[in-house]
Design brief:
The structure is a single chain. The protein is of the alpha+beta class. It has a single domain, classed as Glutamine Phosphoribosylpyrophosphate, subunit 1, domain 1 (4-Layer Sandwich). Helix content is 34%, strand content 24%. The chain contains 11 helices and 11 strands. Helix 1 runs antiparallel to helix 2 and helix 10 runs antiparallel to helix 11. The radius of gyration is 18 Å and the shape is globular. The structure holds glycine (GLY). Glycine binds next to strand 8.
Length: 301
């Protein structure tokens, strides 16, 4: 049963990741338009968040797909992605390598009896589905890694939080560490869906997996709405942030109230951003700046 305030507008909201440059909101905007086009073609919320997230993966300004962070060896890229619908479908990949659009492979997993494929199994699954070999490394990601090496000594000896407190250069530490996961949420008038894709956080080991492919951690979708987070994956995963934000929507909080609740939930030192959509609208926000956008259009009859 839908609440009486339900409007029949389709909604897509997208973010370019916690600490992404808000001046790059044209990227999430383009992603929203790609998602709404899919909904206008009656392909539904799941296809919409896949199209939107794929658009962000192909935008090399963001840390997902092309432009993903390099791992600590300076060459390896391992990516996580996931998608979920309010009908209970979920699919994800973790630590997948050498594909252009991890979120498309996650959608492929959703069509199998499994919920999550990891590492070389995920990559082999992608090849089996005809996904070609692709190197997502960019010059900008290499440059970020070079900057990271410049602070690598301090990072090794300080906790990230302590280094952040003591940082005394003009250039913010966050610029050196880069931005996080991209994500999308959608409502097509009938169904909610969420999707995430990530090159992972900075300075992580081979095989490290964050919140993105874990249902209820990075993302959640249910009959009361959809949530897509971004930020420090370990903190987001430990706190089941997406599911608990969803419960706030289920309890009747407005999207902006649910976002405010989520942003206040984790320790001050944690990097976090979030977008949500419910039957009445959408909202988004982050602690440290984030390129994001939401857009509505008439839902198809
Ligand atoms: N939020 C993405 C990650 O921590 O990998």
């Amino acid at each position: 049963m839908l609440p009486t305030s339900v409007h029949r507008l389709a909604v897509v909201a997208c973010h370019g990741g916690s600490a992404s440059n808000p001046a790059h909101a044209d990227g999430p905007r383009r992603a929203c338009l790609a998602g709404l086009e899919v909904i206008a073609r009656h392909q539904g919320a799941l296809e919409a968040v896949i199209a939107a997230t794929r658009t962000l993966e192909d935008d090399d300004r963001f840390n997902a797909g092309t432009g993903s962070n390099l791992r600590l060896d300076g060459t390896t890229i391992q990516m996580d992605a996931s998608c979920m619908t309010s009908l209970g479908a979920f699919g994800a990949v973790a630590a997948i390598e050498r594909v252009q659009n991890p979120v498309v492979v996650a959608q492929g997993v959703l069509e199998t009896p499994h919920v999550l494929l990891v590492g070389d199994g995920a990559t082999a699954f992608a090849r089996r589905r005809g996904v070609p070999d692709y190197d997502p490394t960019t010059a900008a990601a290499r440059a970020r890694f070079g900057q990271l090496l410049a602070v690598g000594g301090p990072l090794g000896e300080w906790s990230r939080t302590a280094l952040q407190r003591a940082w005394n250069f003009d250039r913010p530490l966050r610029d050196v560490l880069g931005s996080d996961t991209v994500g999308s949420v959608a409502w097509d008038g009938h169904t909610f869906a969420s999707a995430l894709s990530s090159g992972g956080t900075t300075a992580v080991l081979r095989g490290r997996v964050g919140d993105v492919p874990l249902p209820g951690c990075g993302l959640y979708a249910g009959p009361s709405g959809a949530v897509a987070t971004t930020g420090d994956g370990e903190d987001i995963a430990r706190s089941l942030l997406a599911y608990r934000t969803y419960l706030a929507l289920e309890d009747g909080r407005r999207p902006d109230q649910a976002v405010a609740w989520a942003l206040g939930e984790l320790a001050d030192s944690v990097d976090v951003g979030i977008i949500v959509v419910n039957h009445t609208g959408y909202a988004g926000g982050s602690r440290h700046g984030m390129a994001w956008h939401g857009q509505e259009a008439q839902a198809p009859a």
